[in-house]
Write a structure and sequence with these properties.
Largest sheet: 6 strands, mixed
Number of helices: 6
CATH topology of one domain: NADH Oxidase
Strand order of the largest sheet: 2-8-4-5-7-6
CATH architecture of one domain: 3-Layer(aba) Sandwich
Strand content: 25-35%
Helix content: 25-40%
CATH class of one domain: Alpha Beta
Radius of gyration: 17 Å
Distance between the termini: 9 Å
Shape: globular
Structural class: alpha+beta
Order of helices and strands: HEHEHEEEHEEHEEEHE
CATH superfamily of one domain: NADH Oxidase
Length: 181
């Protein structure tokens, strides 16, 4: 597949307004920016790791895509709060499940659910607790499985600057899409 075929396919996705295949140097810079962002506290809770961006960057070809408000985010969970192997919270996008979890006494803030029976782990082992930003499920592009990551704010700004996208426009975001070569 030529670069043009993938770029054209990505540009054909509603809400993707600009596509750029990243060089090895740009991939390294994105990883460095993610590592720096992961040293801070995410969501006011704990450290985090951007699994989605890391997985996308491991693929043979990585495309930065600028998105507008028309981009449809996949309905899969993309945030998990874990302590060791235990999931103590996650985002839930299915309304029925969200309501059921709320009725069961779990703490619900928007689409984020904290499991009542696991909150003791957060309290007792906060230093072991981590926010995982998961890959987004997008399916295949031209017969190749796509791994999608949502970059941290510093990486988002870097990618926008590389694509020549207005960094001041609040309605624009970025995603990284990794595809096996």
């Amino acid at each position: 597949m030529s670069e043009d075929e993938f770029a054209k396919a990505l540009k054909g996705i509603e809400g993707i307004i600009c596509v750029k295949e990243l060089t090895e140097e740009e991939k390294s810079e994105v990883l460095k920016l993610e590592e720096q962002a992961e040293k801070g506290v995410l969501m006011g809770l704990c450290r985090g790791i951007n699994v989605g961006v890391r997985e996308a960057l491991k693929k043979g070809r990585v495309f930065a895509c600028a998105t507008d408000r028309c981009f449809k985010w996949p309905q899969s969970s993309y945030i998990k709060i874990v302590c060791g192997d235990e999931v103590i919270g996650e985002d839930v996008n299915e309304k029925e499940r969200l309501e059921r979890l709320k009725c069961e006494g779990n703490i619900v803030a928007g689409t984020l659910v904290f499991y009542r029976d696991k909150m003791r782990l957060f309290k007792d082992r906060r230093d072991e607790t981590m926010v995982q930003i998961l890959p987004l499920e997008m399916g295949e592009i031209l017969g190749k499985k796509a791994v999608v990551g949502s970059p941290s704010p510093p990486a988002d700004l870097f990618l926008k600057s590389r694509m020549g996208v207005d960094t001041e426009c609040s309605g624009l975001g970025t995603v990284l899409i990794g595809i096996e070569a």
